[in-house]
């Protein structure tokens, strides 16, 4: 998932400790120049003020024409650390950019220098709290260039939105062992020849001889055959309302775990949620669709 919000908006300005000392020294010399009338001190104060103005202009230009690409994974889970790739591009034609930081949550990776027209890349680990669709608020570009007197920052013009899935919580699918499935995750029977035993039925003549249950047939007047599920695993329909858990969040986490596990195993999985049924299927797009439905469930 890629987002490209350009830097824009009103800049922020924060005085650093070195800046406080510099301004205090300039004011002190200014008062001394007024009281003494010493031309040399006037020249020194003028030089200090001019240097401050020049540093302000350079610092402002340093934050212009920058573009940030956020490369986010398709799967982001509540409370689980996620790697986010930051690509910062310097769109200026003549000058490089220096000492740039991207403020994202509690992280502030540093880009020391980005030549003109080039892109610098870094990766940070962030943790999203709370499931559902949420904007990445608070993203800013910051710099102390050229002198650490002021920390300038600008917000991003377009705030990207990400969808956070429920944190998977390990739980059984309640279908193992070939018994009667309990609520929460029920398999849909698909006949096969080499899967798990599903049921016993009468021999119709269409079944192969290897399916005959000889021991059970000896106790009855007719042949009995074993009905087995397909080897590729029967489809699974996940219903969070029937899953174990103390509350909605735990049940949704259990559902996310079952969906992930089924998709890894190549098992068709569906979802029953809020009166809607999503038919079992396989593939990554189908998996992401189910997880997205879980992420937004109960938040409206």
Description:
With 300 residues, the chain is an alpha+beta fold. The chain folds into 3 domains: 2-164, Sandwich (Immunoglobulin-like); 166-188 and 234-300, no CATH class; 190-231, no CATH class. Helix content is 26%, strand content 31%. It has 5 helices and 17 strands. A 5-stranded antiparallel sheet has the order 2-10-9-5-6. Strands 1-3-4-7 form a 4-stranded antiparallel sheet, with no helix packed on it. Strands 12-15-16-17 form a 4-stranded mixed sheet, covered by helices on one side. Strand 9 (140-143) and strand 10 (150-155) form a beta hairpin. It is rod-shaped. The two termini are 25 Å apart. The model is unreliable at 1-8, 175-183 and 188-195 (pLDDT under 50).
Number of helices: 5
The fraction of residues assigned to DSSP E strands is 25-35%
Order of helices and strands: EEHHEEEEEEEEEEEHEEHEEH
Q: End-to-end span in angstroms?
A: 25 Å
Domain count: 3
Indicate the CATH topology of the largest domain: Immunoglobulin-like
Mean pLDDT: 82
* Largest sheet entry: 5 strands, antiparallel
Q: What's the CATH C level of the largest domain? A: Mainly Beta
Helix content: 25-40%
CATH-defined architecture of the largest domain: Sandwich
Write out the CATH superfamily name of the largest domain.
Immunoglobulins
In spatial order, strands of the major sheet run: 2-10-9-5-6
Overall body shape: rod-shaped
Q: In terms of structural class, how would the helical and strand content be classed?
A: alpha+beta
Radius of gyration: 32 Å
| Number of distinct beta strands | 17
Low-confidence stretches: 1-8, 175-183, 188-195
Keywords: Membrane, Transmembrane, Transmembrane helix
Transmembrane segments: 12-34, 40-58
């Amino acid at each position: 998932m890629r987002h490209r919000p350009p830097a824009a908006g009103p800049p922020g300005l924060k005085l650093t400790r070195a800046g406080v000392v510099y301004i205090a020294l300039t004011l002190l010399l200014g008062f001394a120049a007024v009281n003494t009338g010493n031309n040399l001190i006037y020249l020194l104060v003028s030089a200090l003020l001019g240097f401050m103005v020049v540093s302000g202009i350079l610092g402002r230009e340093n934050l212009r024409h920058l573009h940030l690409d956020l490369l986010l994974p398709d799967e982001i889970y509540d409370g689980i650390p996620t790697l986010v790739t930051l690509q910062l591009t310097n769109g200026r034609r003549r000058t490089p950019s220096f000492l740039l930081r991207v403020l994202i949550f509690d992280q502030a990776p540093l880009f020391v220098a980005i030549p003109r027209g080039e892109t610098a890349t870094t990766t940070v680990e962030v943790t999203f709290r709370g499931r559902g669709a949420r904007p990445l608020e608070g993203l800013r570009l910051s710099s102390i260039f050229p002198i650490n007197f002021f920390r300038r920052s600008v917000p991003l013009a377009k705030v990207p939105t990400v969808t956070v899935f429920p944190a998977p919580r390990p739980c059984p699918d309640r279908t193992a062992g070939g018994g009667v499935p309990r609520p929460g995750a029920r398999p849909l029977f698909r006949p096969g020849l080499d899967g798990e035993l599903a049921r016993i039925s009468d021999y119709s003549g269409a079944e192969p001889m290897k399916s005959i249950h000889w021991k059970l047939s000896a106790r009855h007047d007719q042949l009995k055959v074993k009905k087995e599920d397909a080897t590729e695993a029967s489809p699974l329909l996940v219903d969070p309302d029937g899953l174990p858990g103390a509350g909605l969040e735990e049940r949704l986490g259990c559902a996310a775990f079952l969906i992930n596990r089924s998709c890894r195993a190549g098992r068709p999985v569906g979802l029953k949620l809020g009166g809607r049924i999503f038919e079992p299927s396989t593939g990554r797009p189908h998996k992401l669709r189910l997880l997205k439905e879980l992420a937004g469930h109960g938040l409206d």
